[in-house]
Specification:
Blueprint (H helix, E strand, L loop, with lengths): L27 E2 L14 E12 L2 E10 L4 E8 L6 E2 L6 E2 L11 E9 L2 E9 L3 E8 L5 E3 L8 E6 L8 E7 L10 E6 L6 E7 L10 E4 L4 E3 L2 E12 L2 E11 L7 E4 L10 H4 L7 E8 L5 E8 L3 E8 H10 L5 H4 L5
């Protein structure tokens, strides 16, 4: 046993299924995937690339709802078991700090992270180019927009679930205004969620076939006694288009721009029909985890083929052991990312 432990409050009602007999993969899929089907709302054709979090005695989530007019927006949902979801039919109504309506032109691929007593929603939007939008809430009734943290072009922003050395810390992936054919993961800090700096490079794409084109942030990192467990996405260009897989790495607790371990193998890749067939085929896109510190159980929520939401399971011990077994670090990974 690796003696790795999750550092977070326990979550005894985490959704869970035991590993199937004969399964040789480090993660296994929920047997009733996809948990969200097509046409979940009258004006929404598809929900995918979405994030969930414990709240009170149940769960809440922010969901990428692809409207029938093709414009994505963020929708709110609730669940008692994190598998069967009820959605508000209207997209989330954001306001500015004065309480006036302030809607993004579009919003997609949201993340949802609690830091101290505040819940933060982060998404990709237009700000004269692809950029990161943010909002905060304490009650999931009012959602107040924050300043855009970075100039265009940037995507895949993921906030750490606690401050590090007194600052908020966020991963992101600088990009261009198209379907980016490049991309590394960077990290930035802020004392107040307004002004961001101390930008550092975390990881580049690699020679591993499944992440040879680009990489980007996924779920909010999970704090453990061995470091931050980070699930991310890696992309390869094939003759049939892009393929998105899920990778895993361990970042230093105090200096998370420093990679301690990086798995050379994917931990989840498109194999099932709902991952291989859809609006954008061959996509497993991680966006959130639920995790229980008592049992070490982890439930990963991921978008499937830009059409569905799936869940996959693992334990912190199993995924850490797999990362260590297939550990492959470059000298650049080991650095603090300063030049």
């Amino acid at each position: 046993m690796s003696e790795i432990k999750i550092i977070s409050p326990p979550l005894p009602n985490i959704p869970w299924q035991d590993k199937p007999v004969g399964c040789t993969s480090p993660m296994w899929r929920h047997t009733d995937n996809p948990i969200i089907q097509r046409n979940p709302l009258p004006d929404v054709a598809r929900i995918f690339n979405s994030a969930v979090i414990p709240y009170n005695n149940g769960f809440v989530g922010v969901f990428r709802g692809e409207q029938r007019d093709g414009v994505p927006h963020v929708y709110f949902g609730t669940s008692s078991n994190a598998l069967n979801w009820s959605f508000h039919e209207e997209k989330i109504k954001f306001t500015d700090e004065k309480g006036e309506p302030f809607q993004p032109i579009y919003a997609y691929d949201p993340r949802l992270i609690k830091v101290e007593d505040t819940y933060y929603i982060i998404w990709c939007q237009d700000m004269y180019g692809a950029a990161i939008g943010m909002a905060k809430t304490n009650d999931f009734r009012t959602f107040t927009r924050l300043e855009n943290p970075f100039l265009p072009y940037n995507r895949n922003a993921v906030l750490f679930p606690r401050k590090i050395n007194g600052n908020f810390v966020m991963l992101s992936r600088p990009c261009d205004n198209g379907h980016t054919a490049f991309g590394d993961i960077f990290i930035s800090e802020s004392p107040d969620m307004i002004y961001w700096g101390r930008h550092r490079h975390v990881m580049s794409k690699s020679d591993n076939w499944w992440e040879r084109l680009k990489i980007g942030g996924g779920a909010a990192p999970i704090e453990t006694n061995k470091g931050w467990l980070m699930f991310y996405h890696g992309v390869v260009q094939t003759c049939s288009g892009y393929v998105y897989s899920v990778g895993a790495a361990i970042l230093d607790l105090d200096e998370p721009s420093k990679v301690l371990h990086r798995c050379s193998r994917y931990v989840l890749t498109p194999e099932e029909w709902y991952e291989e067939r859809g609006f954008v085929p061959n996509v497993c896109f991680p966006c959130a985890t639920l995790h229980d510190s008592e049992t070490g159980r982890i439930a990963l929520y991921y978008g499937c083929a830009d059409s569905y939401v799936g869940v996959a399971y693992t334990t912190v011990d199993e995924i850490y052991s797999y990362i260590i077994k297939y550990d492959s670090l470059s000298e650049d990974d080991k650095s603090l990312g300063k030049r």
